[in-house]
Amino acid sequence: MTTPAEPLLHTVAEAAELLQISARTLEGLIARGDIASFRIGRLRRIPHTALADFIGKSLAEQAEFEPAEALRIIRRVGRTG
């Protein structure tokens, strides 16, 4: 079995670091439903795909990004950790 290049799930701290925002800001985004997450017992986890989805939606809402540019950025995020 091969290990994926990017973990499937992130802690709040890991996800916040990937997005270069504070954990408190990320928690607000989660509370508003902007970023999907779930609990495993008392632990909150954020799927890596939820981060890419959030970035894609955010870029699409901003007129300065063309769809092709947004897609390139999403793909780049999917390759980095």
Number of domains: 1
Radius of gyration: 13 Å
The amount of beta strand, in percent, is 5-15%
Query: CATH fold name, please?
Result: Multidrug-efflux Transporter Regulator, Chain: A, Domain 2
Structural commentary:
This protein has 81 residues and is an alpha+beta fold. The chain has one domain (9-79): Multidrug-efflux Transporter Regulator, Chain: A, Domain 2, CATH 1.10.1660. It has four helices and three strands; from the N terminus they run βααββαα. It has helices at residues 12-19, 23-32, 48-61, 67-79, and strands at 9-10, 38-40, 43-47. A three-stranded antiparallel beta sheet has the order 1-3-2. Strand 2 (38-40) and strand 3 (43-47) form a beta hairpin. Helix 3 (48-61) packs antiparallel against helix 4 (67-79). The relative contact order is 0.18. The mean pLDDT is 85.
Brief descriptors of the model:
single chain, 81 residues, alpha+beta, Multidrug-efflux Transporter Regulator, Chain: A, Domain 2, three-stranded antiparallel β-sheet, 4 helices, 3 strands, 56% helix, 12% strand, globular
